[in-house]
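Dear Dr. L.,

I hope this message finds you well. Following up on our conversation about the binding site, I have prepared a predicted three-dimensional model of the protein together with 4'-deoxy-4'-aminopyridoxal-5'-phosphate. For your records, I am including the exact sequence and ligand specification that went into the calculation, followed by the structure tokens. Please feel free to forward this to your student if that is useful.
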Amino acid sequence: MSRFSNGKYSTLVPYTPGEQPQNRKYIKLNTNESPFPASGKAFDAAREELHRLQLYPDPDCTELCKTAAKELGVSENEIIFNNGSDETLNFAFMAFCDSEHGAVFPDITYGFYSVFAELNGVPYETKPLREDYTINADDYIGINKTVFIANPNAPTGIALPLSEIERIAASNPDNVVVIDEAYVDFGAQSAVSLTKKYDNLLVVQTFSKSRSLAGARLGFGVANPEIIKELNAIRFSTNPYNINRVTMAAGIGALRDTEYFERTKAQILKNRAYTVNGLKALGFEVLDSKTNFVFARTPKMSGLELYRILKEDKGILVRHFEKPRLSDFNRITIGAGYQMERLICEITNILK
Ligand code: PMP
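The resulting structure of the complex is given below.
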């Protein structure tokens, strides 16, 4: 801590992002990026926008909101764009929680929720996942806290049915229920349509996974206009230009290329099925993934050892969490076909 610090953040344990190695070329299956480049339409729109970099971007994200609203079947005032979904999530902690009104989320989930809670001085409670790593929706029924649920959950990849999300939203009419749908496009049911029915529901999505734009930083929230207005007040009070011109253009281009979106998504699902089958054939337990990653363990080796051998000897990077109930597992992003073939081949050799 510097001698100038106000001390407010002295105990903060920052979020640890997955490794982003800059020195060695790995088969990178550790941070759930898409193995495919952004759509050609996103590329073209972004390149064109480079001619206008001397000008500030549109703080209202008018065209982007219009395009996304049409795609999602909501109104433009029911959507807010942010610099990655992480920013939307932080704004939700800022807007709907405080030292009196805490948050609740599963004990095993996206690691940023507890960091955002600490950052904003928000007390939080965690609810344990069941033995089989599923979320028990009953834990969140009528709870007087702001609810944060990743659906599908991370790093398990397991999804809750929409009926369970609805039950949680309906039973907490005086609390905001935030559903983080970072991975929803890979097989879960989105709660976007429920935002019309429940004015306490905030659905958060990202362009980082299924839209191949992790490097552009683009995420959004969908909710009742009142919730969006409140989040926008925070956005305009921190950084009204949080979406830069190039990203905004790329986002619009990506949304307009439905064919590419569907095609790359289908390829990921195909590669996921291949990976799940390959791992199961090698004796792995693989949780039921509705995401672009799988969470898997083998009784033959510790999660940490497999992670280390894959990284150091085979040049394949996966994500390991050395934490209770997680340390047997590794989280493996679904990459391109040849990458998953290499992975299965190398794991076969390691286990021999
Ligand atoms: N939510 C979950 C569950 C995630 O795994 C991630 C990606 N690490 C995010 C949100 C954040 O995504 P981004 O900020 O790239 O939109």
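In brief: The two ends are 49 Å apart (CA to CA).

With kind regards,
A. P.
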